[in-house]
């Protein structure tokens, strides 16, 4: 994934339907978008408009029914389950609203997890974890457990875990949803810093104060993009 001329993400006319018994929900209805390396894109829109579905498709956590999704020039529809999970582990980092840290493991071990799945050696793991924790100003909490940290600190650890493998794409779903405004602001500042350092970020957020921190906003309604641009006026 080093091709600089190919967009990191190229999505064309993507459709996705969920079926629950007789009820069909058209979660994505013809989404087309491009994301370049170094972009910071915020996806906004009302509850149920398809934001998380789109993020899950971009993260290869979920499939789609029609259209195409090329990740760094690779047609994702041709990938096997094994290839998808390898690409996910190596090239995509995830940050969720609920942190998803493992309480019985130290901060260090939580952040190290993606590297262990890759079979990295001990010295490499130690160096990369330290680097990721320093990037989110949490190196001094390496031996702590998640429940000894504030919500904002836990989210920064989750960001370090997402970054530790140097992913090409960082996908962030409502990163401030469980945080008070002070901790939310600190997490957003962290994401902005990572963006300035070159990380490509796609972030779903309800909060328009934070979507304005991104370099581009995409507004969804009923599974469709209704507006896209650098500075959207929000109703
Ligand atoms: N696994 C599923 N089974 C059935 N329907 C689903 C499933 N996941 C999502 N949906 C439906 O698809 C639509 C889009 O859901 P999605 O979670 O993407 O919305 P969202 O914009 O992220 O919402 P929110 O802001 O509330 O998190 C919704 O109508 C939802 O009910």
Can you describe this structure?
- The protein has 235 residues and is of the alpha/beta class.
- The protein has a single domain (38-61, 80-229), classed as P-loop containing nucleotide triphosphate hydrolases (Rossmann fold, 3-Layer(aba) Sandwich), CATH 3.40.50.
- It contains 7 helices and 10 strands.
- The strands form 2 sheets. It has a 6-stranded mixed β-sheet with strand order 6-7-8-3-9-10, sandwiched between helices. A 4-stranded antiparallel β-sheet has the order 2-1-4-5, covered by helices on one side.
- Helix 3 runs parallel beside helix 5 (151-163) and helix 4 (122-135) packs across helix 5 (151-163).
- The radius of gyration is 18 Å and the shape is globular.
- It starts with 8 loop residues before the first strand and ends in a 6-residue tail after the last strand.
- 39% of the residues are buried.
- The mean pLDDT is 92.
- Bound molecules: adenosine-5'-triphosphate.
Provide a concise account of the structure shown.
This protein is of the alpha/beta class. The protein is 33% helix and 27% strand. α3 packs across α4.
| SSE pattern, N- to C-terminal | EEEHEEHEHHHEHEHEE
Structural domain tally? 1
Whole-angstrom Rg: 18 Å
In helices, the fraction of residues equals 25-40%
Query: Are there runs of 5+ residues with pLDDT below 50, and where?
Result: none
> Shape from CA axes?
globular
CATH class, named: Alpha Beta
Structural class: alpha/beta
The name of the CATH architecture is 3-Layer(aba) Sandwich
β-strand percent reads: 25-35%
Q: Within the largest sheet, what's the order of strands?
A: 6-7-8-3-9-10
Number of strands: 10
Largest sheet: 6 strands, mixed
CATH structural fold name = Rossmann fold
Number of DSSP helices?
7
Mean pLDDT: 92
């Amino acid at each position: 994934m080093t091709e600089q001329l190919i967009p990191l993400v190229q999505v064309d006319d993507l459709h996705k339907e969920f079926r629950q018994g007789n009820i069909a929900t058209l979660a994505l209805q013809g989404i087309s978008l491009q994301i370049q390396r170094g972009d910071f894109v915020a996806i906004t829109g009302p509850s149920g408009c398809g934001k998380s579905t789109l993020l899950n498709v971009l993260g290869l956590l979920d499939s789609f029914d029609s259209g195409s999704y090329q990740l760094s020039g690779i047609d994702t529809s041709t990938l096997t389950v094994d290839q998808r999970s390898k690409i996910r582990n190596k090239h995509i980092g995830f940050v969720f609203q609920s942190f998803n840290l493992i309480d019985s493991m130290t901060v260090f071990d939580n952040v190290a997890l993606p590297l262990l799945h890759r079979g990295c050696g001990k010295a490499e793991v130690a160096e990369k974890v330290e680097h990721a924790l320093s990037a989110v100003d949490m190196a001094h909490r390496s031996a702590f457990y998640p429940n000894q940290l504030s919500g904002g600190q836990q989210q920064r650890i989750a960001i370090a875990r997402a970054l530790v493998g140097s992913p090409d794409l960082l996908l962030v779903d409502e990163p401030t949803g469980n945080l008070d405004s002070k901790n939310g602001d600190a997490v957003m500042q962290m994401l902005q810093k990572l963006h300035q350092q070159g990380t490509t970020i796609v972030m779903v957020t309800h909060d328009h104060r934070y979507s304005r921190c991104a370099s581009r906003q995409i507004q969804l309604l009923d599974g469709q993009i209704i507006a896209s641009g650098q500075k959207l006026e929000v109703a």
